[in-house]
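Form 7-S
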Amino acid sequence: MQIIFPFSAIVGQDRMKMALILNAISPKIGGVLIRGERGTAKSTAARALAALLPEIDVVADCPFNCDPIQPDQMCDQCRERQTAGEHLPVARRRIRFVDLPVSATEDRVVGTLDIEAALKTGRKRFEPGVLAAANRGLLYVDEVNLLDDHVVDLLLDSAAMGRNVVEREGISFSHPARFILVGTMNPEEGELRPQLLDRFALCVEVRGIADPLSRVNILERTVEFESDPDGFFAEWEPYEQQLCGEIARARELLPQVSYDAGNLYTIAELTASYNVDGHRADIVILKAALAHAALRLSRDGTGRREEPEVTEVDILAAAELALPHRLRRQPFQDGVLSLEDLAVRLSQARDKVGEKPAGLAASAPGPQAGESGDAGKKKR
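Output:
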């Protein structure tokens, strides 16, 4: 098996790593767009995340990797088999990393229905596409800004609904399409339309690291990995296992994390203060804050308390990733949101709501740094 550069060995780029981890904990967040210049570990991080994630149980002979214990997340065929009383064989597999080519057509993405076979035999014959392969995995789209807008729309629709529905000549077929969507792009090669940009839940701007010591660190780790991939991975495996365990625990904790009306008002005041269009940002911030709270609790060991809650720091971390690409930019203004300005606005929003401040930080495993928080109530 090919050795992938370890996720925890990536130097810096903490926002990018946090955005990826939050989507791994809760794919319902809706994906992440990573914008930045060439050579900033965008594709390396996406591949490393997929290799890091724990194995999953799937229906062994299903091309859609259906979950054997979740009937509502099965394809039409698996649901029919289960309804008929058939025992579905189960296998354990690693999460798939599916790379979507820039030249992909609509049929290649969603799959195709054989109309002629359906008319002759009365049975649906479906040829799975990229979305089928990506179900319960990670779908990576490099140079997403160069992809046909209609195809990007299809990807984002499926990511939002968690299901792919194909209809031709009155015949339809559907299958689950729940995946971690990761898109990368270099803004120098063209921008995404604002409508498509807004539909990516989180967005991170990455740049080359200027600090000489960090650049030396990158050089050393790259050379070590290329000269001895197995030895390098063995050195970082404890950190990979630690992070893998934190993500797994956070996934288990996520359904238990709660929030209160104050949290909702704080988010609403925050987005209103930036004059953000629409309401998608509010929804994304809440989902990402819940995932961040689950991660924070899985790291600091307090996840066993009765009611894990969203805090101000969780909202701050989520807003930092959900707002930058939704702000109305002035000419010559970059896409990086000032954390200081965000904290001030969050404090103002909190004061309007009448909440008390909260705090505390956590750290990522290994030599790299992460993020975190603390305070909340109201079941999801």
